[in-house]
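Protocol step 4 of 5: obtain the predicted structure for the target chain.
Materials: sequence only (see below). No template structures provided, no constraints applied. The aim of this step is simply to have a reference model before the mutagenesis design in step 5. Sequence pasted as it appears in the construct record:
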Amino acid sequence: QRLFAHDHPDVALSLNNLASFYQSQARVEEAEPLHKQALAMRQRLFADDHPHVASSLNNLAALYKFQGKLAEAEPLYQQALAMNQRLFADDHPHVALSLNNLAALYKFQGKLAVAEPLYQQALAMRQRLFSNDHPDVAQSLNNLALLFVATYRYDQALDYMKQAMA
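Step 4 output (structure tokens):
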């Protein structure tokens, strides 16, 4: 901040990293204003869609989810997903992650029917992007398995758990 008097990508990154550090220590009161500052600065720096803005949207949404502020998290996750979809027309890991994050929020809210197609899209995209022996594919398989358990579809859950474990 001393080196760059005005908005600068390095300052926004530092704000984001410190916020993430505080969040990892459950120091959410300290993390939240830093996430907000990083997001605002990135929005000023990058007027149009930009991966750093989408990342900041996602980070603030994740903090809100951690705090139980689900109504505040949802539009941020939705914005991050929409931005990533505009930025990356084809399959991309950022889009798959955004689909997964929004699905996880919906699952947490008990909106299982809304979460499932997002989890399915994330899995399909990750399978196209990566080999089946990739941790992101295993994560998507596991996420769907847990959703199937929550919806009492135990046979499907077991199949997906076995695939994730393999």
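Step 4 remarks: DSSP finds eight helices and no strands in the chain. The first helix runs from residue 9 to 24.
Proceed to step 5.
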